[in-house]
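User: Here's a chain of 515 residues. Predict its fold as C-alpha cells.
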Amino acid sequence: MPEKKDITPIDQPHQHKDRLERALEMLPGVLTWFALTSPVWLSFRLPNVMAFIIIFLDVYWLYRVVKSMILSITGYLRMRESMNTDWHSRLESDFGESYKEINHILIIPSHKEPGYVIKTTLEAIAKSDYPLDKIHVILALEKRDLEELKKDKQNVAKEYEKIFAGMYVTEHPDDIEGEAIGPGSNRTWSLKHLMPQLEKKINIDKTILTTLDADFAIHHRFLASLTHKYLSTDRPEQKSFSGVFVYSNNYWQAPTPMRLIASALTLGQLGELVENWKYVNFSSHSINLRTLIRLDYWTIDHIADDTFLYWKAFYEFKGDYMVIPHWGVIYGDTVLDETLVKTMVNQYKQLQRWAYGVEHMPYIIKQTFFVKEMSVWVRFERLLYAVRSYLFWAVVAFLTGVGAIIITVINPLFGQTVLGQNLAIYSSLILTVAILGLIPTAYLNTLIAPPMPKEWSPLHKLWGHIQIVISPVVLMTFGSVPAIDSQTRLMLGKYLTFRVTNKHRTVSEIKEKVN
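Assistant: Prediction complete.
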C-alpha cells in the first residue's frame, strides 16, 4: 500500500500577518546573514576588526567547551544519583500516603511509528516504580496515518488497558482549520477531547501531565523522581519539570555523525539542566494539568510547541516560571533510517525543525516591550538570551571555522601583515585546544552510551572510541546549516511544516535497554 503524504492544512497560521509581525520574523535571519557575511564586507575596510572578532569567538568557543565539560560532568553525577535513589521509598518517608494523591497523565502523540515502537514506550511506563492505578496514558494517533499502522498501535494499546488506571486512544482529525501539522495540535485536540472523561476520574489540581515522544522509554524511577521533585518544589504549579534525554536506544546501529549528534544533545542537556534558570522546554516536559489548561494547552499553529509553551508560561506568570530538573532518565532513539542517505536527511530535518523555534522571536520581542508587570531586567535578559542563542547557533561554527581564511582571501594585503600571517595560527591553536577539551566529555559519553556490540571488530571498536575527531565537521554541517536554513526560511516567509522523524531500530536492543 503506498505511503500517505502529509497533508498540510490551509496556511491560516501564517496568513494575515501585519508588517510588524513580518519584520520581527525577518529579524533573526537578517542578523544571522549580517554576521555570516561580515568576513567579506569587513575585510575590505576593517580587516583588523574582523580578525579580533574571530579571535574573540575562538576564545569564547574554548570557554564554552570548558564550561560545558564541567556542567555536563556535574549533570551526569546528578543523573546517576537520581538513577540510584529509591524514589518510591523516599516518597513514602518524606510525604507518607499523601503522595498517592498525585495522578500522572502521559500523552504520546504518534504518526508513522510502527506498533513495536509504541509497545516499548508503554512497557517502560508499565515497569514504573509508582502506583499504576495513578497512571493514565493517552496514545494520540493521527487520522492521516496508515490504517494498518493505526490498527497495530490500537492493538498494542489494548494490551495495557487493565494495567494502567486509564489507557486512552484518540485520533486527531487532519482537516481542522487554522492548525499546523505537529504534535502540539494533536496533543491539544486529544486532551481537550478527553477532558470530560478525565475530570470524573482525577483531581486536575493534583495531576502532572508529561509529554513523551513515541520512541521515548522512561526509566522505571522516572515518575517517582518527578513526583518527589514536584512535591518538594515551592509553587510547583508555576514550574515545569524535565528529565534527562539519553538517545541510546539504537545508538551503535546509527552512523557515526548521528551518534555524535545524539551524544552532544545528551551531554549538552545535562549541562543546561545544571543552569536550569536558562533552560527552555524541549521535547518531553511535565507540567501541572491545571496550569496547562490555564495556558490553553499547546500552541496549534506553530511547529515548536514545546518551546512556545515555555515562553507563554514565562510571560503568563510574569517571569516567575522556570524549568526544574528532576534528573529522571528518558531513553530515546538516535536518528536512524533504512539507508544512510535517508538517515542523513532525517537528521538534518530534525535539527532544522528544532532550530525553527526561532519562529517564536516575534512573540518574545512583543512581550518584552508590552508586559509591564515584569521587571525590565528580567524581560530584556530573556530577550537577549534568546537572540544570542539563535544567532550563535547559526554563526559561531562557521566564523571560527573558515572566517580567518576568508579574510586573507578577500584582502591579500592584510594577509601580509603580522596579524594576518598569525591569525590562522592563533585561531587553529585555540580551536585545537578546544577540541582537546572534548576528550573528558568523550570519556563521559562512554559512561552514558550502551556497550558496543560484542561482534564488532577491534578496529570498529577503536573508531567508536575516537569518533569525536570528526566533531568539527559534524558541527559545521549538522550544527550550523539547519539553523541558518530555518532562520532564512522564516526571513523569506517560506514557513516550515512539521515533518516526522522516521524511527528505525532493532527491537531486541530496546528490550535489553528497557529491562
